[in-house]
Design goal:
With about 240 residues, the protein is of the alpha+beta class. The two termini are about 20 Å apart.
Length: about 240
């Protein structure tokens, strides 16, 4: 399985559809753009983006990549893979002007109202405001990534499933990726290295079986450099 995340500055003047094409061109090593020129970017009636090439989707032609999109704050990311994928990025704050205590209190209220009971219990059991906020966004990004992966979107079933069923999330260190298989949802969640102010989660199928808690071997993050007019490896 191959996963590539292509990161753009949200102020990048390149149109979003062209960003997707650039990412797919990089993913497929189509340096001349001859293959990706014919790609159509479509959306389901629930908003999940997908690609059509020569009249075929990835379900009809496995060589057609899968995509997922997210943006938050200054970042806009398109994930490209050879299998179904969902991605979500969140800044770890509820309101721009609020203090951490206010954020933690609102995280608790939102979790109690919109999350599965096991997820809200996990968040409410945190010992500090900082841990409450971290746990909330671990769950929130995983749930968002999952409904993008399934294509259902956020609807009335958002509280009916638990992304952390059967296990307890580790206290995630932003400097270390975190990988977690959820057999009940038949998917895997990957938290790439970011920083303490943001949480990024990728959801994919359970076929992505990696021993331990390390990310897939064929996983890369790239960012778009406007001056270089191309992608550079993130780390």
């Amino acid at each position: 399985m191959t996963i590539r995340l292509y990161i753009f500055d949200n102020n990048c003047p390149i149109q979003r559809e062209d960003r997707i094409r650039a990412a797919v061109r990089s993913f497929t090593h189509d340096s001349q753009g001859s293959l990706t020129a014919s790609i159509k970017i479509c959306r389901t009636n629930r908003g999940r983006p997908y690609l059509v090439q020569n009249g075929k989707t990835s379900e009809e032609d496995p060589s057609v990549p899968e995509i997922s999109i997210t943006d938050s704050g200054s970042c806009w990311i398109v994930a490209v893979s050879d299998q179904r994928i969902g991605i979500d990025l969140q800044e770890n704050r509820i309101r721009r002007q609020s203090c951490p205590t206010d954020d933690a209190a609102r995280c608790r209220r939102l979790a109690s109202r919109y999350f599965h009971v096991s997820e809200s219990s996990f968040i409410l059991s945190a010992q500090t405001d900082e841990e409450t906020i971290r746990r909330f966004f671990q769950i929130w990004t995983a749930k968002e990534a999952y409904v993008k992966y399934t294509g259902t979107g956020i609807d009335g079933t958002f509280s009916s499933f638990a992304v952390n069923t059967g296990t307890t999330y580790a206290s995630r260190d932003p400097d270390h990726p975190f990988f977690y298989l959820n057999p009940e949802l038949d998917c895997a969640f990957l938290y790439p290295r970011t920083d303490s102010s943001r949480t990024l989660c990728v959801c994919t199928g359970c076929s992505c079986r990696i021993p331990g808690s390390v990310p897939p071997a064929d996983f890369r993050l790239y960012y778009y450099d406007l001056k270089q007019k191309g992608f550079l490896l993130y780390d």
